[in-house]
């Protein structure tokens, strides 16, 4: 059976705003639904393990209802507890929390690199590509170097009023690592597939990004 990991942030504070953050519910729930409907075995991993913080919860959303009913969010594992060769893909869900802890999550990056170098898929949506910024392959190169990617844009960060709150601008850091960032209009569905790297721009892209992952996996 195809096995897929969804990676979640463990960071709960939105900078110095006094507001809470975490993983964005729809960006985990919609991919969970897509992967389950494809017949995959889906598991969760988080930076710190245990119960990760959640943002953007919509209790009336059917995908979120299914996700929170089925996924064991109380006991997520850390990357150190997992083995790359057990998985066919890893999907970094977004949420602003990812901007703080995904880049420094070395064990998570190592797990993702192992999945990729074993022929698997690495995917990320919205702020999830923050997990790709320090993701290096065994030859020392950045995974995103020379790759076409999507991710939350500078214009979108400005539109939500958090340009001065986030620790960096995601699109700029991806570009600094050699990625070719493809921004679409604010909050429109945008997915970029480059080989076995699949990235989406924003929450509206979560389902499409997961569907694109299934398309890559189906070709394998």
UniProtKB/TrEMBL annotation:
CDD domains: GATase1_Hsp31_like. Pfam families: DJ-1_PfpI (PF01965). It comes from the Bacteria. Residues 26-210 form the DJ-1/PfpI domain. Keywords: Glutamine amidotransferase, Lyase, Stress response. The keyword Hydrolase does not apply. The keyword Lyase applies. Coiled coil: none annotated. Belongs to the peptidase C56 family. HSP31-like subfamily. PANTHER family: GLUTATHIONE-INDEPENDENT GLYOXALASE HSP31-RELATED, PROTEIN/NUCLEIC ACID DEGLYCASE DJ-1-RELATED. This is Type 1 glutamine amidotransferase domain-containing protein.
């Amino acid at each position: 059976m195809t096995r897929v990991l969804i990676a979640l942030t463990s960071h709960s504070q939105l900078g110095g705003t006094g507001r809470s953050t975490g993983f964005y519910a729809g960006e985990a729930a919609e991919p969970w639904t897509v992967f389950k409907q494809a017949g995959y075995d889906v598991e969760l991993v988080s930076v710190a393990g245990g119960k990760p913080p959640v943002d953007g919860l919509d209790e009336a959303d059917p995908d979120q209802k299914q996700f929170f009913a089925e996924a064991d969010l109380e006991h997520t594992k850390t990357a150190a507890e997992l083995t790359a060769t057990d998985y066919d893909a890893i999907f970094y869900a977004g949420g602003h929390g990812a901007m703080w802890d995904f880049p420094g999550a070395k064990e998570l990056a190592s797990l993702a690199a192992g999945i990729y170098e074993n022929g698997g898929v690495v995917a990320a949506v919205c702020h999830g590509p923050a997990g790709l910024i320090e993701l290096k392959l065994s030859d020392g190169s950045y995974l995103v170097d020379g790759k076409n990617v999507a991710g939350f844009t500078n214009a979108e960060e400005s539109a939500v009023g958090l340009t001065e709150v986030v620790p960096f601008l995601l699109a700029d850091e991806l570009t600094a690592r050699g990625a070719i960032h493809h921004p679409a209009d604010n909050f429109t569905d945008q997915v970029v597939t480059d080989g076995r790297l699949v990235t989406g721009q924003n929450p509206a892209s979560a389902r499409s990004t997961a569907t694109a992952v299934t398309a890559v996996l189906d070709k394998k």
